[in-house]
Design goal:
The complex is a heterodimer. Chain A is elongated and about 65 Å long. Chain A has 6 helices and no strands. By secondary structure, chain A is mainly α. Chain A has one domain: Phosphate transport system protein phou homolog 2, domain 2 (Methane Monooxygenase Hydroxylase, Chain G, domain 1, Up-down Bundle). Chain B is α/β, with parallel strands linked by helices. In chain B, about 35% of the residues lie in helices and about 25% in strands. A 6-stranded mixed β-sheet of chain B has the order 6-7-8-3-9-10, with helices on both faces. The longest helix of chain B is centred in the last third of the chain and has 17 residues. Classes of the chains: A mainly alpha, B alpha/beta. Chains A and B meet through helix 3 of A and helix 9 and helix 11 of B.
Chain lengths: ~220, ~250
């Protein structure tokens, strides 16, 4: 995007508001994910419940961003990088909303996890969660700075998270087979881990949108070319 | 289509009005049966470029044109001027109908070029007025004064007059800027239809219009052709920063 300002003060302002709204929503979603992981680690059932309730705020933010995007498209007819910005905002917001949902679903598993015996596999969960939270932070930096190279580093991390999740699930399964009292928390933990993996996938989607925003190049489905 | 020989071609075109350097080393190709728009801020040279193709700049005192301009591979200077003006028609910003009847306006060109006579003239009028969507509205009053028509009808009449001499190329200089939005959309639809039979080159101040109607768009700035290419590309991911600034409204 250009360093120059728009001649139209209204468009300049609308785009600035849109960017702020996305960043606020991303902050909120990041806090939700961090909260869910912290609640899981500490077994904080009450704060997990608050997180589930907080998802309404994420949903409200999504609606407000959608509305602004539609209004900008209808009233300002943005072009080139502005158009790509609004188009990517419309897509990014969906991924952020899903990440919010997943954080709430992670929080829903906390009561089961905190009341049952602990699995050995649970020790590797915080590291995996931390990696995904780093992906989220990096992809938002990439978005703010319109930095496609940084977005590519986020995309590169995704397969590693997938492999870690598969490995973790195998370990949980082994533990469950050995000790049936671990089935309930084991299943909850598989849910938890799978949600973290899905968050990584949504962060990857956002990264792909950042590349589109920066270069006007769609990198989502390379095998279709 | 893009591999076919270009209908119009310019190589290293420079135009001066006295000391003013209006077009600077412009090189471009205009494909046949495509609608090409030229956009850019006032004074960028887009109308000058348009007028190069029918040598209308020759009429301007102290105007100097250097470089090569081709129509179907032939240099424009080699084409006899009345032939050139027949093959390259022009439509202006304000409808410039002659103070004659509707019929006389349409067949003015064919009469001058002695392309037809008598009943054939009527056939030409019907064909051209039908092509511009005016026939049903005026068929019962062909001898009425053309200036009794609405602005949109007048612009349609001028387009009918331009195509009556069976040109290859239609140059349009801001053809909708005197029209209301609904008339504009109707004329734009007509322009799309015309581009199937003619090579249409449009100068417009209205970027959305260029985006809506054209296959190709060229952006001029300070006499330079900065970028030219498929319209969707130019409006979604322009290659040049100056184009980006202009289409996003950052030009200053």
């Amino acid at each position: 995007m250009s360093a120059k300002n728009h001649i139209s003060a209204a468009l300049e302002q609308e785009l600035a508001f849109l960017k702020t709204q996305i960043l606020d929503m991303a902050d909120l979603v990041g806090t939700q994910v961090a909260g869910a992981v912290a609640a899981m680690v500490s077994g904080a059932v009450e704060s997990a419940k608050a997180l589930v309730a907080n998802d309404r705020r994420v949903n409200r933010a999504e609606l407000a961003i959608d509305e602004r995007c539609i209004r900008i498209l209808a009233l300002q007819q943005p072009a080139a990088s502005d158009l790509r910005f609004v188009a990517s905002a419309l897509k990014i917001v969906t991924d952020l909303e899903r990440i919010g949902d997943l954080a709430a679903k992670m929080a829903e598993q906390v009561p089961v996890l905190s009341s049952a015996p602990t699995l050995g596999a649970s020790r590797s969960l915080p590291a995996m969660a931390a990696e995904v939270q780093r992906m989220l932070r990096d992809v938002l930096d990439a978005f703010v700075e319109v930095d496609p190279a940084k977005a590519e580093t986020v995309i590169a991390v995704d397969p590693r998270v997938g492999a870690a999740t598969r490995h973790l699930i195998e370990r949980i399964e082994t533990e469950m087979m050995r000790d049936p009292t671990l089935v309930r928390p084991g299943v909850a933990m598989i849910f938890f881990a799978t949600h973290i993996e899905r968050i990584a996938a949504h962060a990857t989607n956002v990264a792909e949108m950042v590349i589109y925003l920066a270069r006007g190049q769609d990198v989502r489905h390379p095998h279709l070319d | 289509m893009r591999d076919a020989a270009p209908k119009l071609k310019i190589v290293n075109l420079n135009v001066h009005y006295g000391d003013f350097w209006a077009l600077r080393n412009v090189t471009a190709e205009i494909a046949e049966h495509r609608l090409t728009s030229l956009i850019g801020p006032s004074g960028c040279g887009k109308s000058t470029l348009l007028r190069t193709f029918n040598r209308l700049n020759d009429l301007i005192p102290r105007c100097r044109v250097e470089g090569r301009v081709e129509l179907d591979g032939r240099a424009l200077e080699e084409v006899e001027l009345t032939t050139l003006r027949r093959r390259v028609g022009m439509v202006f910003q304000r409808p410039n109908a002659f103070p004659l009847s509707i019929l006389e306006n349409v067949v003015y060109g064919p009469a001058v070029h002695r392309m037809a006579r008598g009943p054939d003239m009527l056939a030409i009028a019907e064909r051209c007025l039908t092509a511009v969507g005016l026939w049903d509205e005026v068929k019962d009053r062909l001898t009425a004064d053309a200036l009794s028509l609405s602005l949109e009808q007048l612009q349609r009449l001028c387009i009918a007059r331009a195509i009556a001499v069976e040109p290859d190329v239609l140059l349009m200089d801001e053809p909708c800027s005197a029209l209301d939005p609904i008339s504009t959309l109707r004329i734009e639809t007509l322009m799309r239809e015309l581009s199937r039979r003619y090579t249409v080159l449009v100068v417009t101040h209205n970027m959305q219009q260029a985006a809506r109607i054209s296959d190709e768009t060229g952006f001029l700035l300070l006499g330079e052709l900065i970028e030219m290419g498929p319209t969707a590309g130019l409006f979604t991911r322009p290659r040049d920063r100056r184009t980006e600034d202009y289409v996003t409204g950052r030009y200053g």
